[in-house]
Structures are given as structure tokens and as C-alpha cells.
Amino acid sequence: LLKTHVQREQVLYVSSQNASRLSAAFANRLEYSKEEKKIVVTLHNLQQDDSDIYVCAGLLKNSSFLSVNGSGTMVMIKEVEQTDCHHSSWSIYGLTIVVVLLFSALMCCTLYHVDVKKYFQKRKQNSVYEDMSYRSRCNTLVTN
């Protein structure tokens, strides 16, 4: 794997005996796997300096000529300002907890000031009993 345009350098060399050489600039940032005649290369933690055209080339046996297949792959890294999502997510969690606590306090105060028992007790009917029989009326008459 070669960088060819901006800064010409060998990124990865894998021999037919599975010996490999890796550019120091890509140490701990490049992984590859080899299966028969296929090599899969993965680059991690890309930096602006990694922007270039990458080509896969084969070295012909008993020769110093490189065989390049295709025009390569252009990789362009644009620096983007990263926002720290970790702190903003904690603020959302904190705000949610405060809202829940305030709502709980409001409910506790409301239940404390309202006599909840009277709403759930079976109410007794207000009734007045009056004896309207003849005897009771006779006793209440005023006589001279």
C-alpha cells in the first residue's frame, strides 16, 4: 500500500511469506488481514496528514518494477471540531433528575395538605329522623 500524491511513501508491505513492514506514521492505526491473494486494510484515527491517494501495488518477482492496478483511492481528511457529548449527556440526565425530584416534592406536599382519607372513606348519609305520630304531637301541644 503506497501513498502516491502529496507525500510519496510506503505505508504497508506484505511479502508472499507473510512478512510485513509498516510505516511508523501508521503504527497502531493500521490493521490488515490476508486471505490467499486478497488483503483488506483498515485505517483508524485518521489525521489530516493522511490525506493522499493510496494505491495497491505488486512487486514483480526478480524485478524492481511495481505493478499498479487501478488509479488508487483518494482519502481526504477534513478536520472537524468535535463536541464533547459526554458532558452534555450528563447535563440532560441531571436536568431530568431535578425535574423528577421537584415533581415528587410537589406531589408529597399536595398529599400532605389534602385529607386523602375523606375521599376514600364511605360517606355516611346525613339523615334526620322525626317522629310524626299522633302521640308525639300531643305531647308538644301547649295547654292552658
TrEMBL record:
<dbReference type="GO" id="GO:0016020">
    <property type="term" value="C:membrane"/>
</dbReference>
<feature type="transmembrane region" description="Helical">
    <location>
        <begin position="90"/>
        <end position="114"/>
    </location>
</feature>
<keyword id="KW-0472">Membrane</keyword>
<dbReference type="GO" id="GO:0002250">
    <property type="term" value="P:adaptive immune response"/>
</dbReference>
<keyword id="KW-1133">Transmembrane helix</keyword>
<dbReference type="InterPro" id="IPR013783">
    <property type="entry name" value="Ig-like_fold"/>
</dbReference>
<keyword id="KW-0812">Transmembrane</keyword>
<protein>
    <submittedName>
        <fullName>CD7 protein</fullName>
    </submittedName>
</protein>
<dbReference type="GO" id="GO:0038023">
    <property type="term" value="F:signaling receptor activity"/>
</dbReference>
<dbReference type="InterPro" id="IPR036179">
    <property type="entry name" value="Ig-like_dom_sf"/>
</dbReference>
<dbReference type="InterPro" id="IPR039090">
    <property type="entry name" value="CD7"/>
</dbReference>
